[in-house]
Amino acid sequence: MNTAMRAVCAGGLAFLALAGCDSLNNYAGFFALQSDGAGQDRVVAGSLESVAQSTQATLTQLGFAATRSQKGDAIYLASKTATGATFTLVLTQVDEKDGKKTKVHLEWQGAKDDSTGFHILGQVEANTRR
Q: What is the pTM of this model?
């Protein structure tokens, strides 16, 4: 009976994970990010400037050279992967009731590298928590 119950629970968790249940995202640090449906946006705590500095340091830590530019109220961090895929992280300020937050949007130019993108966004979010 105990083994059957464990199998049912494991199956249910697997189903919810495959179905994209947002409530499961809160249990794994890598997925504990506010995200858009496509997984290309994150909202992290902190001012635009502090998140920009942290994000640029994260990219450097991951081995990416990043070029910073600013257009209006947005900060752009352009870089490319080892395979040559180019991407830009667009950071914009979001003012909310519970404090300043920054939206981090990942834009790919040409071919996407989703696994690298999720890794970068996960590290950006983890490093802004410190």
A: 0.69
Token readout for 117 is 């993108």
Q: Which two tokens stand for residue 103?
A: 């939206």
Q: Where in the chain is the domain with CATH 3.30.310.10?
A: 34-128
Residue 61 has which token pair? 């830590």
Q: Which amino acid is at 111?
A: A
Question: Of 93, 122, 105, which is closest to residue 38 (Cα–Cα)?
Answer: 105
Q: Using only the alpha carbons of the chain, give its radius of gyration.
A: 17
Q: How far is CA 62 from CA 55, 65, 81, 96, 109, in A?
A: 10, 9, 10, 30, 19
pLDDT tens-place string over residues 49-99: 999 999 999 999 999 999 999 999 999 999 999 889 999 999 999 988 888
Residue type, 71: K
Q: What is the domain class of 34-128 according to CATH?
A: alpha beta
